[in-house]
Amino acid sequence: MVFTLALRNLIHDRMRFAVTLVGIVFSIVLVAVQLGLYLGSERIILSMLDHSDADLWVVATGSQSFDDSSFLPGREKYAALSLDGVASVKELVVSFAQWTRPNDGGKTAIVMVGTSLNGAALRPWNVVAGDVGELSLSDAVAVDRFYLDALGVEKVGDTAQIEVRKARVVALTDRIRSFTTLPYVFTSKNQARSFIGLPDDRATFVLIKLKPGADPAAVQTALAAKLEHVEVITHDEFRTRSLDHWLFATGAGAALIAGAILGVIVGMVIVAQTLYSSANDHINEFATLRAIGSSAAYIHKVIIWQAVLSAVIGFVIAILIDLAIVSLSDGTALLVVMTPTLAASLFALTVVMCIVSALSAIVKVTRIDPAMVFNR
Where are the domains of the chain? Predict the structure, then answer.
């Protein structure tokens, strides 16, 4: 009877019920999009780091992220190779450069990634056309098809210009995007040095893979003692530093979280107002229930069930809309992510939000005097 009474109270005034659902749906979609953008931004920021094969990173002092670093002084690779516990050492050359589009001669800023092709340091992934093995050839580069229009190329085999040298596309990747929105352009580390005129002993990062059983802290301390004007940090430390820089130092993450909180507040206000109005409209019915012996707890259950039913129906509609938004964002620079954990959290948030909103209605019916039914 509790469930039936709650359902009938909800659908008695269908317009009011529709307003309740709109409030819930708006709130949850807003929260889902904001948190989905946060997760999507996090995924983009960490994509390069998470596809690298490194236990330790040697970075220039003050480097904040993969896209925001300076060149190392030089010779770090050999200092690392001299230590016990080090299995392999790879250099990366990461630098901003100018790409000249072949179709109109315009300039596009890029992030050039020069990698070691004879290992798994940071090879291009999600290859959909061409062969990344050809990056060792002269002037060869790999680009993501998401940036083809920005780079003024269309397919494998097209040529352009990086700085003053010709560049030839030998491979296309899919969904390798940068948080700065600048295109990543992969090449070999030697080609990258050649494109920007960097000496052969210079690099942006040194990636260190440890032997099984090696103590990362010991190797980190020993290498730091050998080098000057650089930092030796673990992979997890670099991940944390990158997220803190882009999501919090820039304020982007705080803005997304603030938007999610605003969505929750808006939803709670709308649901609370609707449930309160519903309780007020049915005050005589609730008074009758009290007069014939129903407990306050029974009436409270009716109101809570109203809130739960509203939450479930609103969540189903909201999650369908959000999945559509996730699908549409797949081909844009703003990636919205939906994970099972996020979906479960949003459902719990919706139920809690609606139950908390029901407190105003519960307070209203708690003050009912059963005797008022005999004065009608």
Answer: 2-44+251-375, 74-227
